[in-house]
Amino acid sequence: LPPPRSELDEVLAFIYTGPTQPTENDFKRTPLLVSHKRVSAALEWLKLNHEGYFDIDISYDNIKSYP
């Protein structure tokens, strides 16, 4: 974990809340960025604190490839 960027289209979903659906301009103005430190910290926390994740391998190379 996490999966390579090339697989994200198959596993990543976003839910937007608010009075209107986002437009194409909204997406251009507000790009989706990934905090490498937060993804790493979340996966490390899960590995230490959740029995279902104790044996995962964290791919820091995959994390570095995210925008």
UniProtKB/TrEMBL annotation:
It comes from the Eukaryota. Residues 1-63 form the DUF6570 domain. Pfam families: DUF6570. This is DUF6570 domain-containing protein. It comes from Neolentinus lepideus HHB14362 ss-1.
